[in-house]
Specification:
By secondary structure, the chain is of the alpha/beta class. The chain has one domain (2-131). Helices cover 20% and strands 25% of the residues. It is built from three helices and six strands. Strands 1-2-3-4-5-6 form a six-stranded mixed β-sheet, with no helix packed on it. Strand 2 (28-33), helix 2 and strand 3 form a beta-alpha-beta unit. It is globular. The two termini are 24 Å apart.
Length: 132
């Protein structure tokens, strides 16, 4: 389910459609590309909708923003099926919180973490890919 935001453009997927798809899916592969330059309200609302179904996430590709960081932190311990995640923090504004949320995931086999401005907490490089 690819969801992308840009300045002046909301997601192509209405909230009701995302909720219906997420509720019916047995597994979810989430590709969520947030934008610091777009309205944060619809982004947070859609991500919170998807977060209600985090127990079925298999994959997460996320461009993180400062406003989504608290929602991501709330996922701690709620992603037991997550096998793969990729987090991109390429703007200074998105550096507001840790991404330790996924350290407790029991089954990830792939992690890609990109941070343009500083080393990622607990990882050696600013941009790194790990096969776990």
């Amino acid at each position: 389910m690819p969801i992308a935001f840009a300045p002046g453009v909301d997601s192509l997927y209405p909230l009701a459609m995302v909720e219906t798809h997420a509720a019916r899916a047995r597994q979810l592969r989430i590709h969520f590309y947030a934008s610091e330059l777009a309205d944060a309200g619809p982004q947070i609302e859609l991500f919170q909708c998807l977060a209600k179904h985090a127990s079925r996430w298999q994959e997460l590709k996320l461009r993180l923003t400062s406003r989504l960081s608290p929602v991501l932190t709330d996922l701690q311990g709620r992603v037991p099926s997550l096998r793969s995640f990729s987090i991109n923090r390429d703007r200074l504004e998105s550096q507001t919180t840790s991404i330790d949320t996924f350290r407790s995931s029991p089954s990830p086999v792939y992690a890609n973490i990109y941070n343009k401005f500083r080393p990622v907490s607990g990882f050696a490089a600013t941009g790194a890919t790990y096969i776990l």
